[in-house]
Structures are given as C-alpha cells and as structure tokens.
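Q: Make up one entry.
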Amino acid sequence: MLHLDDRDRVLGAEWLFVHVVRNPLDTLAAIDEAALRGSVPIEWDGRIALRRHYVVAGLAGELARPDRAFRVVYEGLVVDPAATVPD
C-alpha cells in the first residue's frame, strides 16, 4: 500500500481511495471461511486487533484526503451495487 504522501507522485491526479467497510462479525467469520491461517492471527484478540488496525488506517485515509476518498459499505454493495457506488 502506498503512503498518502506518495499517491499523487506515483499515481498522478486521477486516483481515488475506496474504503470498503463491513460488519465486524462478518469480517471475522470470513477469515475462518477463507482458511487464511498463517496470514492472520489465530486467536480472536489478534484478529480483532488486526481488523481494528486496518479500519483505523482506512478512516485516517478518508480524513487525510476527503477530496479523493469515499466509503463503501460492503453489505450495501452486495444488495444494490448501483445505488452503493457513486458515479
């Protein structure tokens, strides 16, 4: 992942930051279903901390560049993609 300071230099002026968020319980359940053992912590506290780390980083990205960022709620995307993603 590029740091915010590098994005304009590397990607030019046409990049967007899409922060996809999902129900935390669904996220944790998906980790089990995807059999990601070895790439994520095994214990629940570690999984929760990992998820929190990425959510906080995503929120920081939104705040740092609100002109280039938008949030997509995963559940809305699945139900109605056209209504969830802006033009």
Notes: The helical segments are 4-11, 24-33, 44-64, 74-79, 81-84. The mean pLDDT is 84. The longest strand covers residues 17-21. Strands lie at 17-21, 69-73.
